[in-house]
TrEMBL record:
Its cofactor is NAD(+). This is UDP-glucose 4-epimerase. Residues 3-322 form the NAD(P)-binding domain. Its EC number is 5.1.3.2. It comes from Methylibium petroleiphilum (strain ATCC BAA-1232 / LMG 22953 / PM1). GO terms for cellular component: cytosol. Homodimer. It catalyses: UDP-alpha-D-glucose = UDP-alpha-D-galactose.
């Protein structure tokens, strides 16, 4: 059985579906700080049954011990974390306490339960402002905000743990920009308040929830002047976690791979693709650059193919079509 921390969140819920599709049994642990309980109801038909669920916090050692005692867990996929870059600058202590302390409590509980297989949700933010693209796993590491530092610090903790206790099997998965939604339109990204990420904002403009998109910077050294990112369909990303679990079952040690498409997409490319998928206009206005944003960032995904046998299968059009289906459903449910 797999323990999925943060399993009712955006990436966690989609990975739960991928686990079910691959025949894995799992239990979700989530404190519902940034997700809704009704995700479990919507996961039920997608997973074949309502997932086992424990409401609790990874920082609570007693809760973790109870979960490991109650369920025959053999591996953990660890998503539970605060994840907004801007908020991390405003609330650094909350980010360090939640993301680092939470991971330490989880590792200690795993050790007590003799569970030594972990897939960790890291991020391309650990590359800071890359000197060149595409980005390989051996590029220099740095961070430009507290959120990025929490990911980098946990990566170091896991490297040190792997070196000192070789029985651990650990994957550090460096995501690029997850977007889209499950093709059913039943689960997707559901930010509370103003979205931090581009696609949910674009989707809310398309559905009429917001008047226009602000594009931060139109003077970058990119083909159309807007920022370029590696957008990856969340179901491709979810399947990457299953591939990482399978890889760790075959070979122990520390595995570090990028999960991305290897393709750079600009903000205006994304807007055009979303207009095509939705049949709706997405009005936008170019404003000043946002501090800390980099011009271009995309992955070299070759190592993931080599080590995991994994590559992305869904293109930008499908990312937009699936996100639009989810956004349309969400708007209808709220009406």
């Amino acid at each position: 059985m797999i323990l999925v921390t943060g399993g009712t969140g955006f990436i966690g819920s989609h990975t739960s579906v991928a686990l079910a599709n691959a025949g894995h049994d799992f239990v979700i642990l989530d404190n519902l700080a940034n997700s809704q309980r009704d995700v479990l109801d919507r996961l039920a038909p997608l997973c074949g049954k309502r997932p086992a669920f424990v409401e609790g916090d990874v920082r609570d050692a007693a809760t973790l011990d109870r979960v490991f005692a109650q369920y025959p867990i053999r591996a953990v996929i660890h998503f539970a974390a605060l994840k907004a870059v801007g908020e991390s600058v405003q609330k650094p202590l909350a980010y360090y306490e939640n993301n680092i302390t939470g991971t330490l409590r989880l590792l200690e509980a795993m050790r007590r339960a003799a569970v030594h297989t972990l897939v960790f949700s890291s991020s391309a933010t650990v590359y800071g402002d890359p000197a060149s693209v595409p980005i390989r796993e051996d590029f220099p590491l740095s961070a430009t905000n507290p959120y990025g530092w929490t990911k980098l610090m946990v990566e170091q903790i896991l490297a040190d743990l792997s070196k000192s206790e070789p029985q651990w099997r650990i994957a550090r998965l460096r995501y690029f920009n997850p977007v889209g939604a499950h093709e059913s339109g039943q689960i997707g990204e559901d930010p509370s308040g103003i979205p931090n990420n581009l696609m949910p904002y674009v989707a809310q403009v398309a559905v009429g929830q917001r008047p226009q998109l602000q594009v931060f910077g139109g003077d970058y050294p990119t083909p159309d002047g807007t920022g370029v990112r590696d957008y990856i369909h969340v179901m491709d990303l979810a399947e990457g976690h299953v591939a990482a679990l399978d890889s760790l079952a075959r070979e122990p040690g520390l595995l570090t791979v990028n999960l991305g498409t290897g393709l750079g997409v600009s903000v205006l490319d994304m807007v055009a693709a979303f207009e095509k998928a939705s049949g709706r206009p997405v009005p936008y206005r170019i404003v000043d650059r946002r501090p800390g944003d980099v011009a271009a960032c995309w992955a070299d995904p070759a190592l993931a193919l080599q080590r995991l046998g994994w590559r992305t299968r869904r293109d930008l059009d499908q990312m937009c079509a699936d996100a639009w289906r989810w956004q349309s459903n969400r708007a209808a449910w709220s009406a």
